[in-house]
Task: inverse folding
């Protein structure tokens, strides 16, 4: 019958954000250490509460299996004399490893042959091995932040108070002698700090289930998954009781699971008058400050909230009333900010932006607003979709005004949203307030897009201006350093251009933005390259094309993202067809030839070989087809037309000597190839596709 | 429980835990941490336990007495336990019990909240303590002060007194909270909140503040010049600089670009004070003993006064 190991570290409250990582690392480290100790058959499970980290290892033997280890010794030259008899170096080495001289072997070392012995490592009692593994694993755990306490001699995530470390088969009978941070392991632990603070003795307990059960009786649920299930069930019940639904918030729920030992939930009420606050403010107040789940009824926020509590019951209702009082206080505070802000229209705050810096090198938000307005107008002119110029101008004027409101001062994450709400209440047109509201969306590859063309243009102009300003000032992200999240900003620009009707050319837009920020040609080039990388990322991540396909398409030309994406998807779709295999090779030859020979005057009348006349005819036909198919957005047809050039190109390269002595003829042939190249590059540089 | 009973109860409780009961510092400070009884005493190897109320001034938080939850000056109860004892959380829970807050009937949670003061070159790790969802205390294990790594480590417990009193009295308006002596907080403090707000936001003479900032910086330098520097006068100069900075900031006279530099100038003095203090105590032979040697902690809790509130 196999044995098991139970370890629990009882600490002061561990930060919620440290726990998932600590569990993963504990599991991985124990797995690796057990494998290294020839105990790989064991299975590791990891648990935690806000005060505990626990590890359970099942399937252990009582005794570690014997292992063999090869130990290398001195060089053969030093170990044996000329006649083959062992020197003292050899006998000493053999003795040290516990083997006879005749058991020594010769193996290849880094600097020539050396002698080696196979040493037998006799298995040790598993509890001893576990004690060493535990100390190593726990000491090497990584946390976002560590601390010292008391005399200041130990470093861990929070002060450690108790170690439970028991081993046994069927019953946990053997203390595993772990010592960490001045705490010596024992055979027991303690229950919930308030509900059941007494010691819980576990010597002789029937394994992990008994431990989990006794902790449960002492107010502690050790398994985060069980806590999640319990919290969800209780929350659902409390919501249903008042005919409500829970506003989904998986991120908050995941955090709540980590914040407690006992999965308690309570429902509180808020005064109806708070429902008059903008819903976003109400939700953020409850969620951000109080970590409360919000309830809705028929899609509207209902006057209730759910809060976790680390208690099984609330006998006098004091916890509920306390939470209600705090939520009311917070909402009163938010209402105060709201009323304060609403004393004057959003537009009246614009002068204050003269005093707020975006960044040392970017000047004030007042200046930024003007730059955005100019750039937005320029983008709108080439957007390929109708943009209301008046609304755009107004949206740019108002976009940053909420940064000086009391509400955004309190809830920074509501920037944009607050401005949008205030603009709406001020009676600004829908296109205007939505543009202010949505200026920071999307945050990444997921999430909603800005509503309407005005919002899309404002979002692109704002981000491009920030990018251009920082690139012009030499603040370019490198490696992992991207303090202003410029990659995310550029990706948002790409996504807006790809997924809204906005079809501006990003190369031209980048140049325009840099020029407005007084940047030079080098800054424009750097910014274009940076944006191009994000387009590539977008194509591979969101449009699901292979990196080499994205490269082939972008190498031909790039900038109008919907077109880039359409070409990439078409190429991805047709590249598997047989004819494309040889096309990549043929086009590579075309490109090399043009790059080396340059191009000359195209003189069709000089072309006289059959193969080159046929190639010319095929090119003319393909040009028409590519043109036609582009017109109806069918790039796949265009690509197939290019594929039709594979055979004529092969024949051309076989039969025709391009670099011939006749200068005029050479120029004409090179010019023909240049025409082929130009045609391909209207769609993709297929030479970048590896032949498959 | 009214505000003054709250202060008396906490003072008595921590007195019984062997703390010196100190008085508020008589210079404007932004937090109880700036009081030399915290900022200096947490440095070096000497054990110390102290508790005091500190009126804390945050001019930028002032709201003309119009916001029922925001004050430009509020009261903190500051407790320092050095070294941090193993049962410090139990002691804290017991202090709540002394306020009539029975941990068995309430939900007390410790949620991560780390603390940093760029002005003091100090940071620590700890929690905000939530009582039924209300943040009532900042709990910090000091890791560094005045740029010096600390050893031993002190635990700092900072109670927000207005918040706790409002909570205990279930008052939605801080100015309606009962202070004692038959009066409400607002009857005693409302007018000075109004006036201090007007001063900080509208009236303060920025040029004068800036001039004094520089005057006190020079004065601090003079205090630190002698072979045996005048530590407390230098620190007091730094505290004045810090308050002058806060006033300039509230008045909107500190450009974003300038901010870091001004804070850095205060920190520079705080760091020099911290070093000078440790050297001074060493010269004096660490009169209060050493935690890691054979020093004693002032006033270990008297027998029979073990706090209640759970064993762990």
Result:
């Amino acid at each position: 019958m196999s044995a098991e190991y139970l370890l629990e570290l009882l600490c002061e409250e561990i930060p919620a954000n440290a726990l998932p990582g600590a569990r993963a690392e504990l599991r991985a480290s124990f797995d690796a250490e057990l494998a290294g100790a020839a105990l790989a058959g064991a299975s590791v499970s990891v648990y935690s509460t806000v005060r505990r980290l626990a590890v359970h290892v099942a399937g252990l033997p009582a005794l570690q299996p014997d292992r063999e280890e090869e130990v290398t010794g001195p060089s053969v030259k030093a170990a044996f004399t000329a006649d083959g008899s062992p020197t003292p170096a050899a006998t000493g080495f053999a003795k040290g490893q516990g083997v006879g001289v005749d058991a020594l072997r010769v193996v290849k070392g880094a600097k020539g042959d050396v002698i080696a012995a196979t040493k037998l490592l006799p298995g040790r009692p598993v509890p001893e091995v576990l004690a060493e593994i535990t100390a190593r694993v726990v000491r090497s755990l990584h946390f976002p932040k560590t601390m010292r306490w008391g005399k200041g001699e130990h470093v861990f995530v929070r002060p450690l108070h108790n170690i439970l470390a028991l081993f046994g088969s069927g019953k946990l009978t053997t203390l595993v002698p772990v010592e960490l941070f001045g705490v010596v392991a024992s055979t027991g632990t303690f229950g919930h700090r308030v509900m059941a603070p007494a010691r819980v003795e576990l010597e002789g307990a029937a394994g992990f289930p008994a431990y989990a059960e006794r902790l449960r009786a002492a107010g502690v649920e050790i398994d985060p998954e069980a806590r999640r299930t319990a919290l969800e069930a209780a929350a659902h019940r409390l919501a249903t009781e008042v005919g409500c639904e829970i506003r989904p918030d998986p991120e908050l729920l995941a955090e709540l699971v980590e914040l407690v030992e006992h999965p308690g939930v309570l429902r509180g009420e808020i005064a109806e008058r708070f429902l008059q606050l903008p819903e976003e403010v109400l939700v953020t107040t409850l969620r951000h400050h109080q970590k409360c789940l919000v309830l809705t009824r028929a899609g509207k926020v209902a006057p209730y909230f759910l809060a976790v509590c680390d208690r099984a019951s609330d006998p006098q209702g004091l916890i509920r009333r306390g939470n209600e009082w705090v939520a009311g206080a917070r909402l009163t505070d938010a209402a105060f900010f709201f009323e304060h802000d609403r004393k004057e229209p959003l537009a009246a705050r614009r002068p204050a932006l003269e005093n707020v810096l975006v960044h040392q090198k970017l000047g004030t938000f007042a200046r930024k607003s003007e730059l955005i307005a100019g750039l937005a107008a320029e983008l709108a002119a080439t957007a390929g979709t109708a943009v209301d110029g008046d609304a755009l101008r107004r949206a740019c004027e108002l976009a940053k005004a909420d940064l000086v409101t009391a509400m955004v001062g309190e809830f920074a994450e509501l920037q944009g949203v607050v401005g949008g709400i205030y603009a709406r209440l001020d009676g600004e047109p829908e296109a205007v307030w939505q543009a202010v509201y949505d200026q920071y969306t999307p945050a990444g590859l997921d999430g909603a897009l800005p509503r309407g063309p005005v919002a899309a243009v404002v979002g692109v102009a704002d981000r491009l201006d920030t990018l251009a300003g920082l690139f012009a000032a030499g603040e370019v992200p490198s490696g992992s350093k991207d303090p202003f999240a410029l990659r995310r900003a550029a990706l948002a620009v790409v996504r807006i251009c790809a997924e809204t009707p906005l079809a501006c050319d990003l190369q031209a837009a980048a140049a325009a933005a840099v020029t407005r920020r007084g940047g030079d040609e080098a800054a424009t080039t750097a910014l274009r390259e940076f944006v191009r990388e994000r387009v590539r990322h977008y194509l591979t991540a969101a449009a699901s094309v292979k990196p080499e396909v994205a490269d082939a398409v972008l190498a031909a030309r790039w900038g109008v993202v919907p077109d880039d994406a359409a070409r990439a998807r078409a190429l991805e779709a047709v590249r598997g067809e047989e004819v494309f295999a040889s096309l990549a090779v043929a086009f590579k030859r075309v490109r090399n030839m043009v790059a080396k020979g340059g191009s000359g005057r195209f003189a069709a009348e000089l072309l006289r070989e059959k193969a080159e006349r046929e190639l010319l005819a095929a090119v003319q036909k393909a040009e028409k087809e590519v043109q036609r198919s582009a017109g109806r957005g069918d790039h796949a047809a265009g690509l197939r037309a290019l594929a039709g050039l594979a055979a004529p190109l092969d024949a051309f390269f076989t039969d025709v000597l391009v670099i011939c002595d006749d200068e005029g003829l050479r120029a004409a042939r090179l010019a023909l190839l240049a025409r082929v190249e130009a045609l391909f590059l209207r769609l993709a540089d297929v030479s970048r596709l590896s032949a498959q | 429980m009214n505000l003054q009973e709250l202060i008396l109860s906490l003072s008595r409780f921590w007195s019984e835990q062997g703390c010196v009961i100190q008085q508020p510092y008589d210079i404007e400070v932004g937090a109880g941490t700036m009081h030399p009884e915290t900022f200096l005493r947490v440095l070096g190897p000497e054990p110390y336990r102290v508790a005091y109320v500190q009126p804390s001034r945050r001019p930028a938080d002032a709201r003309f007495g119009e916001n029922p939850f925001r004050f430009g000056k509020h009261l903190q109860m500051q407790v320092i336990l050095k070294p941090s004892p193993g049962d410090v959380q139990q002691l804290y829970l017991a202090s709540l019990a002394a306020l009539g807050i029975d941990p068995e009937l309430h939900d007390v949670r410790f949620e991560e909240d780390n603390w940093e003061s760029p002005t003091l070159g100090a940071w620590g790790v700890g929690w905000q303590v939530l009582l039924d969802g209300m943040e009532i205390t900042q709990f910090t294990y000091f890791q560094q002060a005045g740029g010096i790594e600390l050893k031993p480590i002190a635990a700092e417990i900072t109670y927000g007194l207005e918040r706790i009193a409002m909570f205990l009295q279930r008052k939605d308006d801080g100015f309606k909270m009962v202070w004692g002596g038959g009066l409400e907080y607002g009857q005693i403090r409302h007018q000075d909140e109004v006036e201090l707000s007007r001063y900080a936001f509208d009236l303060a003479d920025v040029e004068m503040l800036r001039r004094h900032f520089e005057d006190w910086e020079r004065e601090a330098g003079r205090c630190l010049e002698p072979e045996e520097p005048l530590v407390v006068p230098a620190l007091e100069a730094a505290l004045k600089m810090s308050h002058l900075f806060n006033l300039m900031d509230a008045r909107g006279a500190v450009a974003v670009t300038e901010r870091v530099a001004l804070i850095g100038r205060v920190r520079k003095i705080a760091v020099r004070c911290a070093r000078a203090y440790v050297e001074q105590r060493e010269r004096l032979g660490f009169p209060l003993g050493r935690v890691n040697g054979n020093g004693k902690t002032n006033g270990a809790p008297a027998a029979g006064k073990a706090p209640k509130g759970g064993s762990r």
Chain A is about 50% helix and 15% strand. The mean pLDDT of chain A is 92. Chain A has five domains: 3-64+125-217, 68-121, 224-341, 346-542, 568-688. The first strand of chain A starts at residue 3 and ends at 11.
